[in-house]
Amino acid sequence: MIQGFQIENLRNKVVSGHTRSESWRRAQLKKIKGIIDQNQKEILNALSEDLQKPSTEAFFEILSLRQELQLYENQLSSWMKPQNIKVPLWLKPGEASVIAEPLGCVLIIGAWNYPFMLTLQPLISALAAGNTAILKPSEYSPATSELIEQLFTKYFPPDIVKVCQGDEYFAAELLKHKFDHIFFTGGSETGKKVMSAASKYLTPITLELGGKNPALVLKDANIDITAKRLIWGKSINSGQTCLAPNHLLVHKDIEKELIEKMKYYINSFYGKEPQKSKDLAKINDHQFEKIISLIEKAQKENKIISGGEINSIDKKVSPTLIHIENLEESIISDELFGPIFPILSYSNFDSALNNIRSQEKSLAIYMFGGNEQEKNQLLSSTSSGGVCFNDVVIQAGIPELPFGGIGLSGIGRYHGKAGFETFSHLKSILKRPFWLDLKFRYPPYKIDISFMSKLMR
């Protein structure tokens, strides 16, 4: 178990000013780059062992981290510079600025679905901002977690980055300590516990949670490409992606055609027995029973359109299309986080938007088709972490684009500059000289209020 004095050792590294320089920060990022470049095979093997991820999908985790590191390499100097702020006339010749300073020792709790990327990506931001960190990888991805501990123990001293493995009870004990920021990726129920624990010390938090991301297909959408992208987004990592489309709203005029195309692409991507495909990741062990029970319930209710085949040995499930009548059905009461795709038809755009607004705010909304007026209507009448038109999931691949949720889908954001600012305190600075000291600011007050109003315009 981590001890309080160990956390203080990490915090003192920051308080002492040791981590302030740009050269120190770049040195830490270089170490992470070395970890990735020199251990790519080991990383891919660990992801395969934990989730049987196809090597192409597993490589996305590495690619995402490399993109993030490249962005920091290019922009860190600029982000670290003081940002000058305009000073009103009555405060001149003062100079105002904002500087980004480190927070201290931060806690990063990783997720099991993308266990390498979602543990290291916030770490990149934290170190670039001049912090030290304790990493708690997910116990549900043991091979990757063990690899992370081995590599960071080798490359980083424990007063810069300390990796701590353990289960949910260990995490609860860890959260009893005082940190300077807590970054958590996972489910909303656990996120509530993290937020509650953080409240003891008023610790700032970032919660990356997910949510029931709706996909909306209008009748003018390109049906072939829409179907292809929807099946891809729902099936990568077997649907175990916080940005995956959760359920589908499709205009009734194109519902049958779209479903046929979706069935075609399931077969095209994964063959006649998708549950045996090497290109389909397995369902995580602690998620598998939930997915099976949802499929069995849909089978009993005769709602399965396509799929539903189960490979209990490899813990794989064929991408499954399910018909639903409304968004109140139990199958979508929670985020699915699996290769199950409920489909609901709608008759007009406004009713579809009402359906979206009736749900909690999601991490993403996807819309296929539509003119500029309809796109603007979606943007202005719904709230979500982000919106993507005519595609799914890949918005997370833009390093400069802030990533985060709203409401039950999360608090705070990261990626690129947003991550740098999340792990920084933006300190406001005002510098004034002694040589100009106007008497009218001091009692007894003699200045005319109308004159003061003009001066402060």
TrEMBL record:
Active site: 208, 242
InterPro entries linked: Ald_DH/histidinol_DH, Ald_DH_C, Ald_DH_CS_GLU, Ald_DH_N, Aldehyde_DH_dom, Aldehyde_DH_NAD(P)
Pfam family, one: Aldedh
Keywords carried by this UniProt record: NAD, NADP, Oxidoreductase
GO biological process, one term: aldehyde metabolic process
GO molecular function terms attached to this record: aldehyde dehydrogenase (NAD+) activity
Domain of life: Bacteria
CDD domains: ALDH_F3-13-14_CALDH-like
NAD keyword on record: yes
Gene3D superfamilies linked: Aldehyde Dehydrogenase, Chain A, domain 1, Aldehyde Dehydrogenase, Chain A, domain 2
Aldehyde dehydrogenase domain sequence ranges: 24-429
GO CC annotation terms, alphabetical: cytoplasm
Family affiliation: Belongs to the aldehyde dehydrogenase family.
Protein's UniProt name: Aldehyde dehydrogenase
